[in-house]
Amino acid sequence: LQKYAERILAPRGSVVVFDSRVYHRGAENHSPTPRRALNLQYTRPFIKQQINLAALMADHIDPESPLAQH
Q: What is the model's pLDDT at position 4?
């Protein structure tokens, strides 16, 4: 796999877009701020999601928040 690896360096504030199903990794974050990521997947409505995000985040979201309405 190493011979196919490609390192991507980007300036602070940049966005890198790629298919998250591709084998990947990130280096250690040496900055004082957290690194943010979005993992978006689209599929047919009749295919069940692999992760139930609403249940997974239930303890971290205010029950009165619109995000908790599922």
A: 82
